[in-house]
Amino acid sequence: MRVAAHARRLDPDQLEQVFVDLILNACQAMPDGGKLDVSAYRDDNGQTLIEVSDTGQGIPLEFADKVFDPFFTTKPKEQGTGLGLASVYGIIARAGGFVDMDSEVGKGTTFRVFLPQVADETGWNRDMFLAQLCSQKAGLPPNCWKDPATELY
Predict the structure, then answer these.
(1) Dihedral, CA atoms, 127, 39, 10, 135, nearest 10 degrees?
(2) How many Cα atoms within 13 Å fall on the side-chain side of residue 90?
(3) What SS3 class is residue 145?
(4) For residue range 51-91, what is the model confidence (pLDDT) as tens digits?
(5) Counts of helices then strands in the chain (DSSP H, E)
(6) According to a count of CB atoms within 10 Å of the terminal CB, is the N or C end of the chain lower?
């Protein structure tokens, strides 16, 4: 699913909400445990790609076109409202990016968040924010960036 829009600065709180929603969904898709992987890369054009992958239950193909719809959920009523992925989609679209998803039932799901390069005269640094978010929210060391130009582990 791609959204055409011009690049805009993304509020750090909104970016954090994107990660919280994606990571929470991944954890809920693995009720018996599994592997959660969060990676970030930057391409030659300065576009940032963030991937959140899990080895959970996967999303059936018939639901793939609905996952970003507000109030769509496959979870029991007490476990979800269906607003998490809709929020992710809206936040990223307003920033001029897009969200893509691959899933296979029984194998897991990967959400890819693409963010355009944004010149920011205020000094806000997306790379530094991602590194801080990585260390604070994922429990990784503050130096989790292998190389700010290429990847996060």
Answers:
(1) -60
(2) 10
(3) strand
(4) 999 999 999 999 888 888 888 777 767 777 778 888 999 99
(5) 3, 6
(6) C
